Amino acid sequence: MNNPEINIPDVPNIAGGIRARSATFTARQRSNSSYSTDGTPNLGIVPGFRRHSISIPMLVISDSDHYDLGTSSGLKYGKFVDWDKMPAASSESCTEPLPSDLKVVKSMARAGCWSKNHTLRAKAYNHIIRSIRCRAVTPDGAVYRDISGKLFGQKKVSTHPFPQFMEGSQIPMYCLNKGGLNAVKKVLVCVENQFPDITYCPVLPAIVSLLLHYSEDEAECFQNACRLIACNDPDMHYIDQTFLAYQSSCMTFGDLAKKYCHGAHKLIGTTDHNLFSVYSDWMMWLFGGLPFEYATRVFDVYLLEGVKVLYRVALALLKQYRVSVTSRESEIADLRQGIQSFVASIAHHLTVDKFLEKAFSIRQFSGKEISLLHIANRKALAQKGITLTQRRQSMHMAIDLQSFSSGIVTAQEMRIIWSWIPERFALFHPTLLFTTSKHGYSLQTLYSRVEGYEPTVLLFKTLDEEVSGAFLSSDWSERNKNSGKDSFFGTGECFVFTLRPEMERYEWMTAHPAESVSEEEFPKARLRSRSFTPSVSRPDTGSSLSTAGTSQDSRFLTVPHAEPRPAHFRSVPHLPTKTASMFMAGSREGIIIGGGGGQALYIDGDLHRGSTQHCDTFNNPPLCKESFQIQLIEVWGIHNSVQNTVC
């Protein structure tokens, strides 16, 4: 006998939806559900509907799902919890008041003081969220009761389009019972009703699900979720609510991974053609990926410290994943899936306390740095035409394997270089500005063709077929400033690299926190004087390049732009100023990249000869044979900083 078909009532024509199998929906399908027994998130895949040619993924809300509220259903904050799936914790009521000082509460959260008492954690969540600065008019529990009555009424079964902002996401059940899953659906529908400006927020289902475990009722869960969404504290951010903001956060995480997880970033760059596809999952590692016990401990601190703590935790996950695959890199078939599997099984590698200890031990990690990277990345995305509502697309395949042409590097090697440069620049295609094969061996010609463009990538090949280069963050015209006095300039985003015979990147050493350096097996920098030390193999040119009066602060970021450059963004104001910061310098006699105890790269004015040494700025070994002859030089810019193709 065929199962009865549920008809679709009239619903608002709201676009959007997730991977729903939108087919005819039966009552039997609605009753099926599966649960995890180990606390690992169980994603509630909600069936969709099909009526003739209509294919709008739907949420099914049925009061028949309100059953069996568990052995502790009488607990004030436990009606939506399946207690058989909850990690060991006290379900007893708690009357102990929480401290009014949020600094004390923050210390308690990091220490996990309420992780073993369900009621205490619920009270802590309400206490913390009530203190969040919000918009003047933020929907509360009374609003929820009003709109839920209008949307759902007394119907046994009601259906609603998936909220538009859930595109591509699922609902983690964690330790919710069926009634809890039903409540999450209702809260999400009501959130969309009250916040139509939220266009992309795949993490919100997980946030609502976590909140519901510690909510007295649906209205309280809705109210707390709304306060996180409506936070207007300039020093606190919780939830990205547009596609543009979400993508900016993913790019920012990529920038931070390059700085704090060098080994993991290198592994991803050499095993996955699209780094961004890996980094775009970073929030889903935390919201939906982590086991419940770990997710709630992260959530405890997240409510007090905002999104900054999420970056910390995700970086710690990436570091630990790199450690876990150290001896079996060649066996990695699907790195993206491998990281997701590692996140789900993190309990087999680290206890939750040790895991959080790792996250909070990352040094020189500032909210200001995150904020400024996010601003720069957002501007770069806007320049590329990414909008608030634009859907996920392949934005990071900037190197076309079919059309790319270089006399020095292959398309795949250029992709590796592009994976090293800051995310806001990696959005754009490389454009050839200068090549000795076409423009001749003249330094003045090189200057004339690259001035006005930033950043640039310098590549060179020696007569011994060795290939190296440098990413240079500043316009070469900076060399003419400072009243004509030659000096070093550039920013801390500069780096040098080798491609053949070995592939390695060497960044500004001050940008690597001490712990990150040791964990990623970087050699420690030998700090020396900032005074200029000429290369022993460099011809005596008589040039007097100095470090005095540098025209650019090394702690600034730039945003790619073809117009006059916008103000730079200070990224790491706390870094010590005595460390060598000699990035790039140029005169008629030659160019120098990196200084302090030697130059990472020196190329003479005829573009025929060069030398390379260890330098304090990048703490690099010689990039190739210490004294070399040049076969070919190329300088590349990024497409959006070039108004017209110049080569």
Structural description of this entry:
The protein is an alpha+beta fold. The protein has 3 domains: 27-71 and 79-229, no CATH class; 243-383, Cyclin A, domain 1 (Orthogonal Bundle); 411-562 and 576-641, no CATH class. Helix content is 34%, strand content 11%. Strands 5, 6, 7, 8, 9, 12, 13, 14, 15 and 16 form a 10-stranded antiparallel beta sheet that branches. Strand 12 (584-586) and strand 13 form a beta hairpin. The N and C termini lie far apart (71 Å).
Produce a short descriptive summary.
May act as a GTPase-activating protein for Rab family protein(s). Involved in neuronal projections development, probably through a negative modulation of ARF6 function. Involved in the regulation of synaptic vesicle trafficking. This protein is an alpha+beta fold and 647 residues long. The protein has 21 helices and 16 strands.
Summarize the SSE layout with pairings.
Blueprint: H1 27-31, E1 43-44, E2 58-62, H2 102-111, H3 118-130, H4 141-152, E3 157-161, E4 171-172, H5 178-194, H6 204-213, H7 218-229, H8 243-260, H9 262-271, H10 275-279, H11 282-289, H12 292-305, H13 308-324, H14 335-344, H15 352-360, H16 367-383, H17 411-420, H18 423-426, E5 430-435, H19 436-439, H20 443-450, E6 456-462, E7 467-472, E8 495-500, E9 504-507, H21 514-519, E10 556-557, E11 569-570, E12 584-586, E13 590-593, E14 601-604, E15 609-611, E16 627-638
Antiparallel strand pairs: 1-4, 2-3, 5-16, 6-7, 6-16, 7-8, 8-9, 10-11, 12-13, 13-14, 14-15, 15-16
Helix pairs in contact: 2-12, 4-5, 4-7, 5-6, 5-7, 6-7, 8-9, 8-16, 12-13, 13-15
